[in-house]
Amino acid sequence: MSQFDVVVIGAGPGGYIAAIRAAQLGFKTACVDAGLNKAGDAPALGGTCLNVGCIPSKALLQSSEHFHAAQHDFAEHGITVGEVKFDAAKMIERKDAIVTKLTGGIKFLFQKNKVESLFGKGSFKGKNGDLYQIEVDNHGEKSVVEAKYVIVATGSVPRPLPLIDIDNVNVLDNEGALNLIEVPKKLGVIGSGVIGLEMGSVWKRVGSEVTILEAMPTFLAAADQQIAKEALKIFTKEQGLAIELGVKISEIKNTDNGVSVSYEAGGAQKTETFDKLIISIGRVPNTDGLNAEAVGLEKDERGFVKVDDECRTNLANVWAIGDVVRGPMLAHKASDEGVAVAERIAGQKPHIDFNSIPFVIYTDPEIAWVGQTEEQLKEAGIAYKKGTSGFGANGRALGLGKAKGTVKVLADAQTDRILGIHMIGPMVSELVAEGVMSMEFKASSEDIARIVHAHPTLSEVLHEASLAADKRALHG
């Protein structure tokens, strides 16, 4: 029976990073993962994020943006093209190649850092003294390894919708939505979160008629509502996404003509039939099959592994990170927790500030934020000041042909310390990093206002919003 200092269960963005960092710190480390490639004939590291989540979705978003630009935007630049054709299968092929390259890269990193990769589903089997026994089930071929420390990083899975089963033929989850090889004439999406908006955007750009059904009465309830309202206007009135809020779905049926959805919205009963239907109503922790009971690992009523602020579970030397624990289900949050746990095992004292974790939605325009929203500050009774600036007069944005959007800076009314930064606009997924760094270093809006920002750049809009927070905007 093989023995390790550290065994990580799961090779997603939390698990594989935790394994690499543990190995770098001198621990004999193994990582257990049951992920398979798209063909199902070989192991594939990287978890949901690399295989059927963050990475492939961004590849499709970029492809669809190019197609849309060729159809609608090139002429403005003096570029004339002939008939523009779209090949969905080719787009999927490109996406698959990117996924294969990156998952192979993790395999290389494991080899480089001397992490032993164990293929199969990992679960607790019991204890042998101070060592935890982890069973590795490779399609019925079982083996057991032992470890002093265990890091649970099993991630999350799509939340099921009780009204219908996902078959990834007509009723799709995130994986099915990423593998359509034909453009559906009518596409329905249940859920207007990150997955719903991004996948709806992809297929709308390449020709689908897209309807998004959202149960919540508020669009993007987690985002600052000034930004959310601007996004809703752009997505619906300018881009043609049909987004219905406050929806109550009563029935979903697979029929000969497609997928029929009956629902109530705005007091009216409606029935729509879609060629394909994407279910994107959130994700739930992937703890089924972990056999937590074998060692007494505690989970809460929703299936999350219980941890403290430093990712310790109720068991000595057992840790849990990423989507399987409290906090936002974000790949970068999982990765940082993985690094922190490996360093804590080594006796170090790393720190993660959950208030400084950025959120991004990769629509066009992109949406990004860090820190508290204006609604949260009002609810908490915190006195604040705000500054806003738009991309409409920004030279770089105009040159890109992407001059829609706003940056909003929220700062403490007395101390001027930044409390939140919220953005909608071009490449704000990159701009938000300045906001994250500012919050990590306890900056004030004046600090950003006094930093020289290159001209012409998109970052000048953040600079201008920071000036506006102190009522000294120069361009607005």
TrEMBL record:
<keyword id="KW-0520">NAD</keyword>
<keyword id="KW-0560">Oxidoreductase</keyword>
<keyword id="KW-0285">Flavoprotein</keyword>
<keyword id="KW-0274">FAD</keyword>
<comment type="similarity">
    <text>Belongs to the class-I pyridine nucleotide-disulfide oxidoreductase family.</text>
</comment>
<dbReference type="InterPro" id="IPR001100">
    <property type="entry name" value="Pyr_nuc-diS_OxRdtase"/>
</dbReference>
<dbReference type="InterPro" id="IPR012999">
    <property type="entry name" value="Pyr_OxRdtase_I_AS"/>
</dbReference>
<dbReference type="InterPro" id="IPR006258">
    <property type="entry name" value="Lipoamide_DH"/>
</dbReference>
<dbReference type="GO" id="GO:0004148">
    <property type="term" value="F:dihydrolipoyl dehydrogenase (NADH) activity"/>
</dbReference>
<keyword id="KW-0676">Redox-active center</keyword>
<dbReference type="InterPro" id="IPR036188">
    <property type="entry name" value="FAD/NAD-bd_sf"/>
</dbReference>
<dbReference type="Pfam" id="PF07992">
    <property type="entry name" value="Pyr_redox_2"/>
</dbReference>
<dbReference type="InterPro" id="IPR004099">
    <property type="entry name" value="Pyr_nucl-diS_OxRdtase_dimer"/>
</dbReference>
<feature type="domain" description="Pyridine nucleotide-disulphide oxidoreductase dimerisation">
    <location>
        <begin position="357"/>
        <end position="465"/>
    </location>
</feature>
<dbReference type="InterPro" id="IPR016156">
    <property type="entry name" value="FAD/NAD-linked_Rdtase_dimer_sf"/>
</dbReference>
<keyword id="KW-1015">Disulfide bond</keyword>
<dbReference type="InterPro" id="IPR023753">
    <property type="entry name" value="FAD/NAD-binding_dom"/>
</dbReference>
<feature type="domain" description="FAD/NAD(P)-binding">
    <location>
        <begin position="4"/>
        <end position="338"/>
    </location>
</feature>
<dbReference type="InterPro" id="IPR050151">
    <property type="entry name" value="Class-I_Pyr_Nuc-Dis_Oxidored"/>
</dbReference>
<protein>
    <recommendedName>
        <fullName>Dihydrolipoyl dehydrogenase</fullName>
        <ecNumber>1.8.1.4</ecNumber>
    </recommendedName>
</protein>
<dbReference type="Pfam" id="PF02852">
    <property type="entry name" value="Pyr_redox_dim"/>
</dbReference>
<keyword id="KW-0963">Cytoplasm</keyword>
